[in-house]
Amino acid sequence: MADSEVIVAVMGATGSGKTTFINLVSGANFATNDGLRSCTAEVQTSKSFALLGRQVTLIDTPGFDDTTRSDTDILKVIADYLCNAYQNQKKLSGIIYMHRISDSRMGGTSKRNFTMFRKLCGDDTLKNVLIVTNMWGEVSAEVGSAREKELATDDILFKPVLEKGARMLRHDNTLASAHRILSCLVNNRPEVLQIQDEVVNKHKDIQQTAAAAELARELEEQKRKQQEEVDRVRREHEAAVAAQQEATRRALEQERARIAAEEARARAEYERMRREQEEARIRTEQQAREMQRRLEEEARIAREREEQTRLLHEEQQRQAVQQAAERERLRIELEAAQRRHRRHRGGGDCVVQ
Predict the structure, then answer these.
(1) How many CB atoms are closer than 10 A to CB 304?
(2) Name one GO molecular function term (predicted).
(3) Could you report the per-residue pLDDT of 212-230, keeping only the tens digit for each?
């Protein structure tokens, strides 16, 4: 790895602002989500950027409370990436763990994420770890400071890692704040994470690592609690059935009656709709036939009018021919009469000697 290259992993629970932080400081455009669904399902690497004369690359990791993949899958994805990077001579100069100061308490999911984070890193690398609290704009300064103090002083929260060299910083969602946070890591000596040492150096299978053991313990604990909850619900159900069997029977009968009435209503509604559709179909067909009849009648009238027009035109032509013939006859008769008249007048002018 080049001396100027700084690689920093960003970890934390789903929705803790990991991807938003990386996009802000690196100019990346990784998908983010304001809802409950995870956007980061795989490890993502930002484009490198310059900071304090070093080239910094950030690694975006999915949380162990991912909504689309199991914790086991997430562990394998992160472990594979980190171990492959280590085998390619790329070690982390720092790890940022994002935590929402807006969370009123650190619940089971957040604690599980942080526990898995510790098992991935190991205690020897905690001096390169920054716990970054964000979303300060969502709480008052007084509330945020009180939560920050509790996180730093509670033995089951961040106190153990802070005592072993980790530091806790605030992020106010500005580029200057992000640069200030990263400036605390750029000059660190890159360290080998516990998961990298176990898999690469000690040739352990991922399932044999401390992180996997912790995950198995967590899963077993979840399974035990779920079984206890199932047993409790079953006992309560059995007690309720025993105490309220008659009420349950009546309720079931009422529900059956309601369902039967609902089905009858649905059938009646279906039959009504079917009749309406049939009536509509008949009306449509009748309208279509009536329209066809009107069109045919209009076509017949048009043909009759066309025929009348044709006959009238022929009659007009015939009359025109007759009138022309009559005019010709009269012209001829007139010319003949004029000739007779001229001859008559010429005969009267003769002198007999």
Answers:
(1) 10
(2) GTP binding
(3) 888 888 788 878 888 889 9
pLDDT at position 348 is: 54
- Report yes or no: 132 and 238 within 8 Å, Cβ to Cβ: no
Query: What is the dihedral sign for C-alpha 19, 21, 27, 33?
Result: positive
Rounded to 5°, angle at Cα 100 from 96 and 106: 105
Of the candidates 73, 78, 83, 21, the one whose C-alpha atom is nearest the C-alpha of residue 46 is 21
Contacts of 100-105 with C-beta under 8 Å, sequence gap 24+, read: 100/13, 100/15, 100/16, 100/17, 100/133, 100/134, 100/135, 101/133, 101/134, 101/135, 101/136, 101/138, 101/139, 101/144, 101/147, 101/148, 101/170, 102/135, 102/138, 102/139, 103/147, 104/147
Average the pLDDT over 61-74 and give the result: 75
75: nearest Cα among 221, 227, 218: 218
What amino acid occupies position 220? E
Position 337, amino acid = A
